Automatic annotation (TrEMBL):
Superkingdom of the source species: Bacteria
InterPro entries: dGTP_triP_hydro_central_sf, dGTP_triphosphohydrolase_C, dGTPase, dGTPase-like, HD/PDEase_dom, HD_domain, PHydrolase_assoc_dom
Lineage, broadest ranks: Bacteria, Pseudomonadati, Bacteroidota, Sphingobacteriia, Sphingobacteriales
UniProt keyword Nucleotidyltransferase present: no
Annotated HD/PDEase domain residues: 62-267
Protein name: dGTPase
Keywords annotated in UniProt: Hydrolase
One annotated GO biological process: dGTP catabolic process
Length: 451
């Protein structure tokens, strides 16, 4: 059985600049801190501030969007990585000389966490469904004969995880030919489902529940996988076992959205405080907490304290499981999220939170309304742009319409798949507000200001 090893898994080699020498000893920032900084200052990351997390973008009450969620996930991810490193250092006092990059695990994970939602389209999962259904049940079905089976598989199952890898590595027109030029380890830590669409969607195998790279980025991921020594998944043609740090990135995301969605629901009046307290107290595991809560007369402050305590408990529990499961992780045999591998009482408490979240939060009227509207907007944009871009003989309208698509998104290859992928790059990168505004204008529902 092939076994991965940390010495190879942790690499400061940078995508597109593989021959560049690394000298962290004389730099203020490590290569992995540079990854984090590049993402923080990037346009795709800034656009997350206008992408829905769960609830519609805020009016008078502030709730989380994709940007604030990603920042919080990065914070939790850094803690998870740091705890793991500290535990490894206790067990192996000479680990800094044997595995010098292990102390950077927190920075690698936090950078990967920042980018884990970069590929999500406007309106979240509703946007993903709209893109997929355009090809399965909409006008896009007519293009099936013009692409390969593998290409059709990822068009009909649009996946935000795969789109994130594309955003970070694709040579968009006029941009750096190496994308964001992140380190190999950071890129690998982003890919939750390391296989192509034709091998994804296996609900019985956790690392193949979805897929992690489009056909257009398959060679990119394979190069990363070989460099880092990822174990090949011999059950499928395109698959690999996860980079172990993916589990910590996944845990950070799971911790944040499960707990913070409750906090937002309370702020919006969807869940009463008493119910939030009932759900979170079993996760907090603090015998003195009830007395502290009674001293706070502000319910938002009580909810914030519960949230902080719950997140701390989950961080410590997930980090403990990760540290104790090194053999299974490095052999590619760890078969569930860390959040499902913590002790039974915590799993039960989180299951109760998930059940209420599905019943009361994710099906709240305001959430469903934005999902339905977002579906119509995304589908409508694809109906306009994809046929216009694919036509050999374009009408005057087609030409005018495509002038609205920035040059960076125009395909450098002329095959049907590459052209469709380019339009999807454009549409999936839109914020909620921009997508609605553009949809209204091209449909004649509203007109640009003439000021």
């Amino acid at each position: 059985m092939d076994v991965m090893n940390w010495k190879q898994l942790l690499s400061a080699k940078r995508w597109g600049y593989e021959s560049r020498q690394v000298d962290d000893q004389h730099d203020a920032r490590s290569e992995f801190q540079r990854d984090y900084d590049r993402l923080i200052f990037s346009s795709p990351f800034r656009r997350l501030q206008n992408k829905t997390q769960v609830f519609p973008l805020p009016g008078s009450v502030f709730v989380h969007n994709r940007l604030t969620h990603s920042l919080e996930v990065a914070s939790v991810g850094r803690s998870l990585g740091r705890i793991f490193y500290n535990e490894m250092r206790k067990a192996m006092p000479k680990i800094d000389s044997e595995l010098p990059y292990l102390q950077e695990v927190g920075n690698i994970i936090s950078a990967a966490c920042l980018s884990h939602d970069l590929g999500n389209p406007a309106f979240g999962h509703s946007g993903e469904a709209a893109i997929s259904n355009y090809f399965t049940d909409g006008l896009g079905a007519s293009f099936q004969e013009q692409v390969t089976v593998a290409e059709w598989a990822d068009l009909t199952h649009f996946e935000g995880n795969a789109n994130a890898l594309r955003i970070l590595t694709h040579p968009f027109a006029g941009k750096d030919a190496h994308g964001f030029a992140l380190t190999y380890s950071t890129l690998a830590a982003i890919v939750k489902y390391p296989c192509a669409a034709i091998d994804g969607h296996d609900k019985e195998v956790h690392h193949r529940k979805k897929y992690g790279f489009f056909k257009s980025e398959q060679a990119v991921f394979e190069k990363i996988a070989v460099e880092l020594g990822l174990t090949k998944d011999t059950d499928v043609q395109t698959g690999y076992k996860r980079h172990p740090l993916v589990y910590l990135v996944e845990a950070a995301d799971d911790i944040c959205y499960n707990i913070i969605d409750l906090e937002d629901a309370h702020r919006l009046g969807i869940l009463p405080y008493e119910q939030v307290e009932r759900l979170l107290l079993p996760v907090c595991r603090d015998e003195q907490l009830k007395a502290r809560l009674k001293k706070l007369t502000d319910f938002d402050s009580r909810t914030s304290l519960l949230r902080a305590k719950a997140i701390n408990t989950l961080i410590m529990s997930c980090a403990e499981v990760f540290t104790e499961s090194q053999d299974a992780l490095l052999s590619g045999q760890f078969a569930k999220p860390l959040m499902e591998a913590v002790d039974a009482d915590l799993v039960d408490a989180m299951d109760a939170i998930e059940q209420i979240s599905v019943e009361k939060i994710y099906n709240a009227q305001s959430v469903v309304q934005i999902e339905v509207a977002g579906y119509k907007v995304m589908n409508g944009l694809l109906e306009e742009f994809i046929p216009a871009y694919l036509k050999q003989q374009k009408t005057k309208y087609d030409t005018k319409l495509l002038a609205l698509m920035p040059k960076q998104f125009h395909a450098q290859q002329q095959d049907t798949y590459s052209k469709i992928r380019s339009v999807l790059d454009f549409v999936s990168g839109m914020t909620d507000l921009y997508a609605v505004e553009l949809y209204r204008k091209i449909k004649g529902i509203s007109f640009p200001s003439l000021d």
